[in-house]
Each structure stands twice: as structure tokens, then as C-alpha cells.
Amino acid sequence: MTRYIVLASFTDQGIRAVKDTTKRAAAVREMGARFGVEMKDIYWTLGEYDIVLTVEAPDDASMTAFGLTIGSLGNVRTETLRAFNTDEMEGILGKMG
Prior knowledge:
By secondary structure, the chain is of the alpha+beta class. It has one domain: Alpha-Beta Plaits (2-Layer Sandwich). Helix content is 42%, strand content 32%. It has 4 helices and 4 strands, in the order βααββαβα. A 4-stranded antiparallel sheet has the order 2-3-1-4. β2 and β3 form a beta hairpin. It is elongated and about 50 Å long.
């Protein structure tokens, strides 16, 4: 599975209904299963981003479909980062020669 970090910020709609944020997170977790995406962790944060997710997906296309679906709900804007573990990074470095 491929790992991703998702940084999310509330939209105006999302902040107006902020009291539902944990319910929405549970719904998003369930929705991810339709795409083969597993939400590993969710954190509500202080600073530039309101929410940080760690996610695993089978491929970029599944993750993109999941991200677009989340965005279409209108509660958050997201930025998705592909994450590499140590073994993956060692393989990348090995290709450098």
C-alpha cells in the first residue's frame, strides 16, 4: 500500500458546521473503504492546517478519486503528499548511482 499525508483546512462551510467535524471524519473513514483507502490516523491541529490525516491507498488513482470526493463535499480543502518509508527511500537513493 502507498502512504499519503493529507493536510486539510476548513472551508467557510466546514467551519460553520465545525461541531460535526468528528462525525464527518467517521463518515470519510467509511467512505475511504469504497476506494480501497484506509485512513490510519486523523489529528485536528493548530496552525496553518486544521486537520492532518495519514492514509494508505492501493495506488495514486484510488487516492485521487478519494481526495476529489472529499473535496466535492465542500467542508475542507486538501493538499496530499506522497510519503516514503525508510526502505522506499533507500531504494530511491540506490537509483541515484
